[in-house]
Write the structure tokens for this entry.
Amino acid sequence: MLRYKTVALDSMLVGKKKQTANEIMAPVAQVIQKEAAGGWKFENMYDMPILIKPGCFGKLFGKPGDIIYYYMMVFSQEA
């Protein structure tokens, strides 16, 4: 039986003009390597929309809230 866990990337990946794709993607590789060291197998990555509800003033002025996208990495491990 497998068990699963998710890990959200802390921030958006940002690159510079002269960086390679591998350099820009290094934070993703670091998370995969860290989880693999703990016995977790990388399964997939998804972008997840998260609704951030408005605060008191936002509600007062009819603000619907903000949608922020996070990248969610899914890992599995034998139970």
Remarks:
- The helical segments are 21-24, 26-37, 56-60.
- Strands lie at 2-8, 41-52, 66-78.
